[in-house]
Specification:
It is a single chain. The protein is of the alpha/beta class and 279 residues long. The strands form three sheets. The protein has a five-stranded mixed sheet, sandwiched between helices. Strand 8 and strand 9 form a beta hairpin. It binds 2-acetamido-2-deoxy-6-O-phosphono-alpha-D-mannopyranose. The site of 2-acetamido-2-deoxy-6-O-phosphono-alpha-D-mannopyranose has 23 residues, from helix 3 and strand 9. It is an enzyme of class 5 (isomerase). GO terms for molecular function: N-acylglucosamine-6-phosphate 2-epimerase activity. It comes from Sinorhizobium psoraleae. Keywords: Carbohydrate metabolism, Isomerase. Its EC number is 5.1.3.9.
Length: 279
């Protein structure tokens, strides 16, 4: 059955019609960050109005914490969501079809595990985007709640700021600005590829922190694979650079890093599959 799947991220919102793990139709709009959830939902309902007769269920994959269909920000710098917003309930009413909601990276972990880079076994998914999201699939089941919120981890030396505030796409753009360059994360990657020293330094810090995170994840969960994705179009070379930072680790401790196969659509495809099962 066809599902309307919606991914609300800190920067972009994607809506798609999905059937059997394949995208039939899709639209992409910027997330109006300051507008708030009522208007995000209204905008999506408006933009997808012409699809109304084509789907039977709705699935949301969103940045932030989702518990029992209620939505909150963990890091309001990634996206400011009011506490305990009743997302599943409002969406069910607005779209007139049964709706489920889950975290974006947890949905993406499921998508990659079933339709993407996964090859059976336990999998961790990591997205380096506006923030840093994560999802865990253990014994063929995606974990929910706080599980996998790796971007919120704080190392003892890190003081008050979460890891994503010193690693993610948002951090990369802010560092570029500090260095006197107005550029988004994708542009910083492009400059790094062209060999600009300031851009290479920023990317290298980001990849070192992401690589260290993967090393820690391996010790915590010992997954068979860690799949890396993210809205910054996973800049060619990002994973290679992570691997480079990990090259001195003893092989038995080394995480097995793989590039995501579904790109920025992993969350959409994952949540559509789970919504299609009836939630
Ligand atoms: C943050 C957190 C996670 C999310 C991750 C990636 C908020 C609002 N979000 O760690 O729930 O999975 O960012 O989100 O607290 P994205 O917007 O970068 O895709």
């Amino acid at each position: 059955e066809t599902v309307l799947a919606i991914d609300i991220g800190g920067t972009k919102t994607m809506a798609a019609l999905v059937k059997g793990g394949a995208i039939i139709d899709e639209i992409l709009v910027p997330t109006a960050r300051a507008a708030g959830p009522d208007s995000w939902l209204a905008a999506i309902a408006d933009k997808t109005g012409h699809w109304r007769d084509r789907y039977v269920r709705v699935g949301f994959a969103v940045t932030g914490l989702v518990q029992d269909g209620r939505w909150s920000a963990l890091n309001p710098a990634t996206l400011g969501i009011p506490d305990d917003y009743p997302l599943a309930e409002r969406a069910t009413r607005l779209f007139g079809k049964p709706a489920i909601a889950m975290n974006d990276a947890q949905a993406a972990a499921w998508g990659e595990s079933k339709f993407g880079a996964g090859s059976g076994g336990n999998l961790v998914f990591l997205t380096i985007s506006t923030g840093i999201g994560g999802g865990i699939v253990i014994d063929g089941r995606p974990l929910s709640g706080l599980a996998g919120h790796f971007g919120l981890i704080r190392g003892p030396s890190q003081g008050r700021s979460p890891l994503e505030d010193e690693t993610s796409g948002r951090w990369i753009a802010a560092e570029a600005l500090k260095a006197g360059h107005e550029a988004n994360a994708a542009e910083v990657f492009e400059k790094a590829r062209q060999g600009e020293p300031w851009a290479r330094a920023i990317v290298s810090q980001s990849t070192l922190r992401a690589a260290t995170l993967c090393r820690d994840i391996q010790l915590m969960l010992d997954p068979d694979q860690i799949v890396i994705g993210g809205g910054i179009e996973l800049a060619a070379g990002y994973i290679d650079e992570m691997r480079d930072h990990l090259k001195d680790i003893a092989p038995r401790l080394a995480p097995h890093l793989l590039a995501a196969k579904l790109g920025s659509r992993a969350g959409i495809i994952g949540v559509a599959d789970l919504a299609g099962e009836g939630g």
